[in-house]
Amino acid sequence: MGAARLIIVDDEKDLLELLVNRLKRKGYDVDFAENAEDAISLLQNQFYDIAIYDIRLPKMDGITLLKETKKIQPEIQVLMLTGHGTIETAIEAMKLGAFDYLAKPYNLTELEIAITKAVENKTLIEKNDSMRKIIKQHNSFQIIGKNPHFKALLELTERVANSDVPVLIEGESGTGKELFAKALHYWSNRAEEPFVAINSGALPEQLLESELFGHVKGAFTGANQDKKGLVEAANGGTLFLDELGEMPLVLQVKLLRFLETGEFRRVGDVRERKVHVRTVGATNRHLEKEVANGNFREDLYYRLNVVRLTIPPLRERKEDLTLLIHHFVKNGKTLSPEAMATLQKYHFPGNVRELHHLLERGVLLSKGDTIEADDLLLANVQKVNLKDVTTYQLCTLEQLEKEHIEKVLSEVEWNKTKAANVLGVSVRNLYRKIEQYQLKEK
C-alpha cells in the first residue's frame, strides 16, 4: 500500500515526540494530536491506515475516540495503549473494533511489530475484498477469430497489456469491446487484481459520479452510509469505462483529473483519495465527431486515446462466423445448410452479441439435433426470412438500424429499458435514436 499513514494520540508530550520521530525515521507518514478533539479534526480531513490511541486521554477518552474513529473511517486499524489497571478496558476496545493493544510501559520494537501486523491486516482485508470480486469474474474467457485484421488486433492487445497507459476501444455495439478490455487486464501483470466495469451511459449524472467515485453519508438524499466507489474497488487493477461517449461533460472534467493524478474525492467529501488503476475506455461512437460537436472534451479524448483498438464489425469478418457458431452452439446440435446460409447472408447489426442471441434462441426452439432456419427466424426480436435477408443487404446501414430498432421496440411493446437491453445500448442512447429516426409507437 506504499508508506502507511499513521495518527498517534497521546497526552504525554515527551513520549508522543519520541514515537513520532522514531516512526518517521522508519518511513511512516505520521500525524499526531494530544487530545481526542484534535484527532477527530485530523480524521475528518485526512485518511490514515493505522491509529495509535492512549486509552487515558483528557476530556474524551481513548474508547470514545475509537468509537468516533470507526464512524469516520471504518477501515482504519486501531492500536490501543493501556496503562496499569486498564487491561479490561483494552479488551472492551477489541470488542469495539480495535486491532490490538499494548500495555505500558512497552518496548518500541514491540510497538513497531504491532504496527507492521496492523498494516498487513489492512492490506489483507483490501486484498480479500478484491479477490472476492475476482472470483466472481472468472477469467477463462475466449476471443475467437482468424480474420487477419482481427488477429493483428489481438497481437496489439497482447503487446500493450502490461503497460499502464490508457486504452480506447472503439467498435459497434456487440463487437466484443469488454472482451478486449478483459484481455488487456488478464494478459497483464494485473491479472490477480480486480477488473471493474461501469456503463457510463446507464446512470444519470449524480448516480454515475457516486458509482465511480463513491460518496459519504449525507452527500445526497438516500446516502445513508459511506460508499466506496468503483475506482477504489479497482485499485491495483483495471477500470473499464463502457459507453464512454455517453458520459456527461461535468463528469468528464473529474475523470480527466483522476486520469492525470490518480486522485479523486467521494461525492460530498472534502478529502482527497488516491489509487493506482489502469483505465480502459470503450465507445460505439466516433469520438472525434463528438469532440467536434462539443459533446466530448478534447483534452480527455487525447488523454484516453494513447492506444486505440478498433474492433471490426462481424459483417467485415464473415470468415469467423463458422468458428463463432461452433463456439456458441452446444448440446451436440448443428445448423442446417439453410440456417447457415441465412446467417452468412445476414448483416448482423448487433454483431457477435446478436449472433449469440440468435443461436441461443435457435438451440431453444429446435425440435431435434438440427437447428433449422425457421428456428433462428422465429426469434422474438428479429423476424426475417431468406428474402428479407437479401433485402437487408440492399439497404443503407442507417435504414437497417432504424428498422431493427423499430422491430425491437414493437416486440417488447415499447418498453425502452427492455429494448435497450436487447439492442445492447444505453436507454439514453435509445432515446436519441428514437428521436433521430422519429419513431413512434403504433
TrEMBL record:
<keyword id="KW-0805">Transcription regulation</keyword>
<protein>
    <submittedName>
        <fullName>Regulatory protein AtoC</fullName>
    </submittedName>
</protein>
<feature type="modified residue" description="4-aspartylphosphate">
    <location>
        <position position="54"/>
    </location>
</feature>
<dbReference type="InterPro" id="IPR025944">
    <property type="entry name" value="Sigma_54_int_dom_CS"/>
</dbReference>
<keyword id="KW-0238">DNA-binding</keyword>
<keyword id="KW-0597">Phosphoprotein</keyword>
<dbReference type="Pfam" id="PF00072">
    <property type="entry name" value="Response_reg"/>
</dbReference>
<dbReference type="InterPro" id="IPR025662">
    <property type="entry name" value="Sigma_54_int_dom_ATP-bd_1"/>
</dbReference>
<dbReference type="Pfam" id="PF00158">
    <property type="entry name" value="Sigma54_activat"/>
</dbReference>
<dbReference type="InterPro" id="IPR002078">
    <property type="entry name" value="Sigma_54_int"/>
</dbReference>
<dbReference type="InterPro" id="IPR002197">
    <property type="entry name" value="HTH_Fis"/>
</dbReference>
<dbReference type="InterPro" id="IPR027417">
    <property type="entry name" value="P-loop_NTPase"/>
</dbReference>
<feature type="domain" description="Response regulatory">
    <location>
        <begin position="5"/>
        <end position="119"/>
    </location>
</feature>
<dbReference type="Pfam" id="PF25601">
    <property type="entry name" value="AAA_lid_14"/>
</dbReference>
<dbReference type="InterPro" id="IPR058031">
    <property type="entry name" value="AAA_lid_NorR"/>
</dbReference>
<keyword id="KW-0067">ATP-binding</keyword>
<keyword id="KW-0804">Transcription</keyword>
<dbReference type="InterPro" id="IPR009057">
    <property type="entry name" value="Homeodomain-like_sf"/>
</dbReference>
<feature type="domain" description="Sigma-54 factor interaction">
    <location>
        <begin position="143"/>
        <end position="364"/>
    </location>
</feature>
<dbReference type="InterPro" id="IPR003593">
    <property type="entry name" value="AAA+_ATPase"/>
</dbReference>
<keyword id="KW-0547">Nucleotide-binding</keyword>
<dbReference type="InterPro" id="IPR011006">
    <property type="entry name" value="CheY-like_superfamily"/>
</dbReference>
<dbReference type="Pfam" id="PF02954">
    <property type="entry name" value="HTH_8"/>
</dbReference>
<dbReference type="InterPro" id="IPR001789">
    <property type="entry name" value="Sig_transdc_resp-reg_receiver"/>
</dbReference>
<dbReference type="InterPro" id="IPR025943">
    <property type="entry name" value="Sigma_54_int_dom_ATP-bd_2"/>
</dbReference>
